[in-house]
Structures
1.
Amino acid sequence: MLILLICCCIGLLNGIQIDNQFVEQPKDIETILGSTIILRCRTQPIHPSQVTWCKNDFCTLGKTRDLPFYPRYEIIGDANQGEHHFQIENVSLDDIGMYQCQIRAGPKRAGSMSRKAKLTILRNSLILLCFQMFCFVFN
């Protein structure tokens, strides 16, 4: 506890902003295979290159908003308004995991991590619809 207090005081003396820079943090989400989801993250206005996303504590998904090595992933929203939402298209079982929004440290700003948000894939259920003598199965 004493070490944390000392680190905070040193940071403040050096002009580093330590307060929570997140306006909105991602929340757990449940979805089905093939859907598109958005994990929300809003920060105080900072340069878009200072915000990235982490999956399962792997924080190098990319430094640009289009994430070229992950074609189904993209950081969307108005960066000038602090919007750095993480979109996954065509959700697959590979996407299951924990996600975090990360603010990289800057010259006058300490880095910060959002809360972790869990992405869960729900199993598709069959719907049985019967009308008179006919039954239809929907997946």
2.
Amino acid sequence: MNSAYISGRVPARFERLVARQVRAARTSKSDLVARYVIEKSLETEFPGISFRNSLSGREAYLTGRRVAVREVLAVYEETKSIERTAAHFRWPRVLVTRARAYAKAFPEEIGRSREAETDTASVAGLVACVEHGGARGF
């Protein structure tokens, strides 16, 4: 990935806050600040989208909802309708439109999220199967 250098100054109390978060996240200050800049820029560009940790890493979600953008897109692909997708979630249409706009702008990210979720679900299914006495050959 090509990268660019961005620099900025913050009051000392915020540097201490970031330093604490760096330790908790077990990452570098540079990587954490880069993530914050990228995610805040995307949240500004795509209102209603925010980011959370998931089993597969950071993932785009609808702000204030427990639904990832990839999940909205999956329902939309089945219904082929913004109206029916919104009805499925009992949401206003604008939330579906926002999720689709983000997914359109970042199709590779959504594809990776779907793939990672599928991989995670497959492993979880295998573990559940083994725990319940199935899959004797493993």
3.
Amino acid sequence: MDGTRKRACALTRAILLHNKRATRQYNRTVSKRLGWACRWLGPLTLVFSFSLSSALAQGKWLDLMPFPEPHEEVIGQAANGKMYVFAGLVAAPVWQPVGLVYEYDPPANKWTKLRVMPLPAHHLSLTEYNGKIYVFGGFIAGRVGNLVAWAPIDNAWEYDPAKDTWKELAPMPTKRGAGVAATVGDKMYVIGGATVAPGTTNPAIHPTTAQRVLGTVEEYDPKTNQWRARAAMPTPRNHTGAGVVNGKIYVIGGRIGSAFIAASSNLNSVEAYDPSTDTWSAPLAKMPTARSGLCVGVHDGRIYVAGGEWQNAVEQTAYRAFEAYDPAANSWSVLPPMALARHGVAGGVIGNRFYAISGDVQSSGTGIAVSTDATAAFEFSK
């Protein structure tokens, strides 16, 4: 027994010694690997923490009074310290314009329904001048055979928010919808959009028909009620956004190939138009997220872009993305995203807030009602 006991004790000591050595080796290996990881991940963690803190320091999202009549393809315009929301579209395959008009009062956090548009249309181009809102083009209900379609129009209107009245203006030279409008000085510019294909006899467009995406630029003078053509945009596009900084119009994102998301491709390109010289810039810094059906606002010399959509054969996507372009630095920054992804969303800036109102939470074409009443504002840090 004594010999057996001695052999057992020797074996135990050998096992313990082996385990002790193995443990030391394991600890040295783990320590070495952790040291390597810390050396590499440490700076990345610091960069991520700094970037996140920097983004959050620029502001925060707030939930506001829900929009009373949710729809996709609403469009917003700020005027006289209030936000006005127009248009709306009953989702495909119905595709009927609603023609709604609502006023939002920020101090009261209250919505007021106003008179419907004299000509209900969707995918309008809006801009503000001297407290009045100018409404250009869009699509009305049309047909291609037995299919509901979009018929581009050339109508132009002046809307007076103080009186809730509409005044018809000289029509645009080009019928189109899904363009953008902007005011520089005493003139207005309608840029891009989509219309029927050259030579077509049908006045409407549909995902199954040929159509034309435009780079057309037309200038409107409210004093003379006259239009004139200007230099075309280098990259024709529709469902785009635009902001004015230091007298230049920056056109951002949008889509090419078609007015309909399923038949088009999104852009992340940026081009600037200078009305004083009637010239376009070279391509500028690309938006981080290529998208169309977005909303735009300008604050403190920067252009903010929220929402949008994208679609391919297997995916239908709406975006939460919220990104800012700085024309002075020709650079982009990524900000905290919206809580709810959406496209066809109304937006704009009043004071130190960027508003995002209603829209659809799913890219279009599902045939399912997916409009949201969400009204949110990104409050910029002072």
4.
Amino acid sequence: MERFTHFLSTADLWSPEMLGILIGTGFIVGFVNTIAGLASAISYALFMAMGMPVSVANGTTRPGVLLQFFINSLLFRKAGVLPIRTATRIGIPIAIGSVVGAQLAAHVSPHIFEWSMACALPILASLLYVDTRSVTHVRLGTESKVSPVQFALFILIGCYGGFTHAGVGLLIIFASVFLLGMDLLHANAVKQFAVVVYTPIALTVFILNGKVNWPVALIYAVGNVAGGWLGSRVSIRRGSKFIRWCVTLCVVLISFWLIYKQFNR
């Protein structure tokens, strides 16, 4: 592991090996983030192993996220499963919150956020296996309204999303299911567009603070877009049950990883 870390921190960025690692990692992260979420933690680990501070690693993921989820949104919209007005209503408060979160990310340790996510995500994931027919009431082709309380909750989600992209997709999915009554397929589609709405704002904050490594970001984005394209097609084709299992697997893995990090700093 030490030899690999040394290689990442010293290798020529434009060497075939590094290009393969960055694009390959971007592909995996893009695929998993499209279907479920939390895979951005992989890219954070990679970028930090390359010698980036955590805030720069955070900012460097954002261009790829924006391009990937923009393409994903087009694919979900074409498939007829993206309620665009609802996604916009969700995206606006998330964008507002992301400004605060991105400012915090540029200067604050993620320790508290990581502990909160590690404890909360397994509980939220377990709720997906409860009979959700009582809350899933939005029919195909209909739009949902967002109440003031829900608006405030989405601002909080945006604050987290501005702070770190890892896990925000799952929070948007959970909120869309349990607050707005969507099934998982439509909630996942809304997630794609909501990320497109808030990411430019968060990205701007990182750029203004000099927290984006552009050469790495653009190479990584190639894999992000390709993985997101495949993930969108698989998600649309396989539907809610497949998304539920993917979300659960991601939650279990990332929760163990986050808790492990807290005791091995």
